[in-house]
Amino acid sequence: MEEFLNERFQEVLHCIIEEYIVTANPVGSKFIAGKCSLNLSSASIRNIMASLEEKGYIHQPYFSAGRVPTSSGYKFYINSILKTKKISKQQKEEIRSSFNISGKDIKKILWQAVHLLSEISHYMPIVLAPERTYANLLHIEFIKLDKSNLLVVTVFDGGIVENKIISADRDYAQAELSKYSVKLNEIINGHNIDELKDVILKSIDKDRKSFFSLLNGIIFNFDLAKDKIVNEDDYLYIGSRMNLFDEPEFSNYEKIKSLVKAFEDKKTIIKLLELAKQKEGIHIFIGSDTEWSDINGLSVITASYHSKKGFAEGSIGLIGPSRMNYATAIPAVNYMAKLLCDII
Amino acid sequence: MEEFLNERFQEVLHCIIEEYIVTANPVGSKFIAGKCSLNLSSASIRNIMASLEEKGYIHQPYFSAGRVPTSSGYKFYINSILKTKKISKQQKEEIRSSFNISGKDIKKILWQAVHLLSEISHYMPIVLAPERTYANLLHIEFIKLDKSNLLVVTVFDGGIVENKIISADRDYAQAELSKYSVKLNEIINGHNIDELKDVILKSIDKDRKSFFSLLNGIIFNFDLAKDKIVNEDDYLYIGSRMNLFDEPEFSNYEKIKSLVKAFEDKKTIIKLLELAKQKEGIHIFIGSDTEWSDINGLSVITASYHSKKGFAEGSIGLIGPSRMNYATAIPAVNYMAKLLCDII
DNA sequence: ATTAGCACTCTATATTGAAGAGTGCTAATA
DNA sequence: TATTAGCACTCTTCAATATAGAGTGCTAAT
Lengths: 344, 344
What we know:
By secondary structure, the first copy, chain A, is an alpha+beta fold. Chain A has helices at 7-23, 29-35, 42-55, 71-84, 89-97, 106-121, 174-188, 193-203, 209-227, 242-245, 253-264, 267-278, 326-343; strands at 58-59, 68-69, 124-128, 137-146, 149-156, 161-167, 236-238, 282-286, 298-305, 314-321. Chain A has 13 helices and 10 strands. In chain A, strand 4 (137-146) and strand 5 form a beta hairpin. In chain A, helix 1 (7-23) packs across helix 3, helix 2 (29-35) crosses helix 3 and helix 6 (106-121) runs antiparallel to helix 13. The radius of gyration of chain A is 26 Å and the shape is elongated. The model of chain A has no long low-confidence stretch (mean pLDDT 81). Chain A binds a DNA duplex through residues 26, 28-30, 40-44, 46-47, 49-50, 60, 62-66.
């Protein structure tokens, strides 16, 4: 798909992109002539630029202005740096050492990942929590809240804990509930939700009508949870929006407003991250590539993470302007995803 | 403290404020002459306005512009409408009916309150969760996660559920943990955390060293939790910021940026709401009144809520421009606080 | 193949001017 | 004495205009 580019052309394209990443202003031929390693005059650079524009890698916002990279331009650039740039050992060490996992549940770990990535990248990180539909159950506990409400605590593999309140069909004593908890835990050991349903239906104690109705309650709840994330806040973690506001592309009212509006509704981001989850490794969505048409000029770097057992999969991403610093951002996302794999 | 105002003066002040609330533009004498019930010429209104300005209730942004209310002006206005305006029965019904509390824990209930208040007010609601330091304990359950980690589920009065992971001093079997849970629950019934510590220390089973170390673990955790909210996201709930962005006072880049920055750090808001919690009923902070110096032109309406038993106290607030519609916003906050009292 | 030179285009910024809104003051009025 | 009409004055806002500067494309020279 990708056209072959002369070394000279590549050099000019890289120069333009790297300069544009820093200044956010269209880059002129004179500047490139002075900066890049090719010793050519501005006139020659102009010829090359005209050619690059013809091929679609750069673009003039208006007649006789400087050049700005296009999506294809970024793509080409990313492909070439992907091979070379790696995260420095020092930075690796820095990230790993500031990750505090003692006594933290998954929620806090994911928040930490978001905050860390926010600090090192200055863009807006997003993290999708592992879906527990296919995670193994570790423990279920029934706790009495009052006459008509029970709390069901469900613990999954990978530190995922879920609290759910279900209404009881009658007033249970805590002692009775505890007995059921024990009984249920003998069955569930190491199954996931789908499997559990079968197991329960088979091993159910027919005499115990109340036990059965309890089980019905939780199964019903699991069904509900499967296709609908009850609480988006436990599913998608969004880092500081402020980081993006500092970027010059959002320095006017209309744009900043559309930016905030786009993130207010988390569904678009969730969709994007769910897509990324299904793929292996790093993926990059640039500008108008996606159905992300809400905001032009935005790019998203995503990576999936998964526990060693293969369950508990989620994904992590970083949203920035298309003009983002891919050379440092991509390795950062990549490393963070790996780190999450290790921890979970 | 408040000066007496002639009826005529009051009428003009009200007119100015109510017009300013709608248009956000300085209000001129001609407009007031045409609109308000006093049948006076613009020249007479001008005299009154000059007088009101001298007293500090209104202010001219620049020589020979219209008038804008000052903080004192708003205060006076609020005091007079506080006596008359009430929420309509219809709106009460609407709010109450869209409040769905079945099977929800406190977290979801508070989110619902935020969303509802956001919808009816078009400003930015904030809610402080009840602190559970003084709430009664209902249940504690130990669940084994792996060899070295235990999950402690703590259930408080009022539907507050907390999960905490503590590291174990040795490998406990789940059966053993369950026994401890039962034993502990016999003791805790109806005590709050502070009381519980005494009770535990007195009734502790001296032979059971491992039980003791477990208890030590949770007591330690409670101490930690008391003066530090571990996760701000479970403590402060913030509604849609977008609502504020639509207000004309934030229609330029610098202001919108300082607005977002001010809310990025939740500590200021938390401080404010904790202050409100200690007071009874509705309180209103206007503009530069508070140490809220970050953003001039912002007002906060707050109200405290508490369960009937007197425990589980929190507070609720609404942030808008000083130029906010107090006549509808104040009753809305007030009613929402009452509703929370009923539900919890 | 490369470059110097030049006319040209377009943006960004400052300047100007006119229109409009609102005031304060004074003198006239009821 | 309280109110109002009239008028000169101030200040903002908005659009039109002018100017400077950056960057280009093209041509002719090297």
